[in-house]
Amino acid sequence: MTILILLAAILVLIGLISWAKVHAFLAFLLVTMGVGFAFGMGPGPLLAAMYKGLGDTLGSVLLVIVLGAMLGKLVAESGAAQQIAVALIQAFGTRHIQWTMMAAGFIIGIPLFYNVGFVLMIPLIFSVVYKYQLPAVYVGLPMLAALSVMHGFLPPHPAPTALVAQFHANLGLTFAYGLLIAVPAIVLAGPVYGRTLRHIVAVPLAGFRVEPLPESALPGRLNSFLSSLLPVLLLVLVLGLQALLPATSWLAPTLTFLAEPAVAMLASVLVASVSLGLAQGKTYASVMEACAASVKDVALILLIIAGAGALKQVLVESGVSSEIAAGLQGTGLPPLMLGWLIAAIIRVCLGSATIAGLTAAGVMLPTIAHSHANPNLMVLAIGAGSLLLSHFNDAGFWLFKEYFNLSARDTLRSWTMMETIVSVVGLVGVLILDWALKALG
User: Fold this and answer.
1) Average pLDDT, stretch 153-176?
2) Helix-, strand-, coil-residue percentages of the chain, each rounded to 5
3) What is the mean pLDDT of the chain?
4) Does residue 169 contact residue 376 with C-beta atoms inside 8 Å?
5) Beta-carbon neighbour count of residue 131 at 10 Å?
6) Using CA of residue 407, residue 412, residue 417, residue 422, what is the dihedral sign?
7) Greatest distance between any 2 Cα atoms in the chain
8) Which residue ranges does UniProt annotate as crossing the membrane (predicted)?
9) Backbone Cα Rg of the chain
10) CA 250/CA 231 separation, integer angstroms
């Protein structure tokens, strides 16, 4: 009955958004209330869960998305994104732009959380799209595939890091195995699959469309790269210092503070306001106006993400995720495949990759204790499962759909399919690596 109710809720959500053309935020609220009552929650607990979901979800992404939008607006309007696009195309040519974008996403996806990397690189993607008249999805998907794989597979991202601790895995080995699996997953889901999507027509958010500036008006190339990638550089520097210095160092509390993505984004916006604004002859008022305009571009996205968070919280507090996972323990599947499957099903039902991964870990802990499954590979199997079939209840789905201004159908064909390829290739890679390690002794 639980599965049937969840399936009905997902179908209703899809129907409201796709066919009835109800705004996604309203659709989420309606479906969330219906699901809560269907699972026996009273009005008080239901509303409390919705408020918690709304608050927790916005609390975790609001600063990053808004500050990222401000940085993106400054990068776009100053001509820095145009300068970076010119440099990339000159270096690699439009023929290899997919691989260029994939490599960039892979590199910045290691230290950056997904939302940070997404909003940071969107202006760069759109700059290439507009300047060279290339299909937006074709250009952007390889980079976002790389960011997604890093988020789901590898430490220091939240879910993989927590899974390493829960399974008492080796952080270094998990990272090394993860890289071996991540590369083919990104290549197949990004450049290879992306070639089939050239015909998708996408008109990205107008806020990121900037008329090309004459070369003499562009900021310097070094300034453009440093200002645009400052969050990456700051976090890499901080994480490097954290790895080198002992936890008892007097610098440790400061580094912990600076390692927060929101802090790095705030510092980057302040620097870019000077380096790409005031230093380029812009007035203080025009710089602040650009920051204000960027918030308007992401306001609806934030509402939709909040609505998805409310639904997720109601499903979590109703005990649905635990009930589904417990019912799968008696399937007799190999532990690595079972971990992937549990994470995948919870991901499809709840939308959150992090919740799916952590819930699956709790279910698999007793299983892995009585089996010979490699804990490092179990982290990766669950991480791969947590990325499967991103759809209407996933904040990442809406980020991609709204920023690229796609229809629901085209988002399913591009984003959802890309995430599914990553998940399945990840599972295959885990199973092959498990076989190879056993064969080697």
Assistant:
1) 78
2) 80, 0, 20
3) 82
4) yes
5) 16
6) positive
7) 67
8) 30-51, 58-76, 96-129, 136-154, 174-193, 225-245, 257-278, 298-316, 336-365, 377-400, 420-437
9) 22
10) 23
Structure tokens at 15: 């129907």
User: DSSP secondary-structure letter at 393?
Assistant: T
Give start and end residues of each alpha helix (H) in 154-196: 158-166, 171-187, 193-194
Lookup result for tokens 């809720």:
9
Record the tokens describing residue 174, joined without a space. 């998990």
Amino acid at 176: A
pLDDT of residue 382: 92
Q: Structure tokens of 146?
A: 């790389």
pTM: 0.70
How confident is the model over 7-56, as pLDDT tens digits? 788 788 878 876 888 887 888 899 889 988 988 889 999 999 999 988 88
**Rounded CA separation 372/438 (Å):** 11
CB contact at 8 A, 296 and 207: yes
What letter does residue 220 receive in the DSSP assignment? P
Give dist(CA 258, CA 132) in Å, integer: 37
Instruction: Report the phi/psi class of residue 112: left, alpha or beta, with left for phi > 0 and alpha for psi in -120 to 50.
Output: beta
Mean pLDDT, rounded, for 354-376: 76
At 201, the amino acid letter reads: V
Question: Residue 97 — φ and ψ, nearest 5°?
Answer: -65, -35
Cβ atoms of 123 and 208 closer than 8 Å: yes
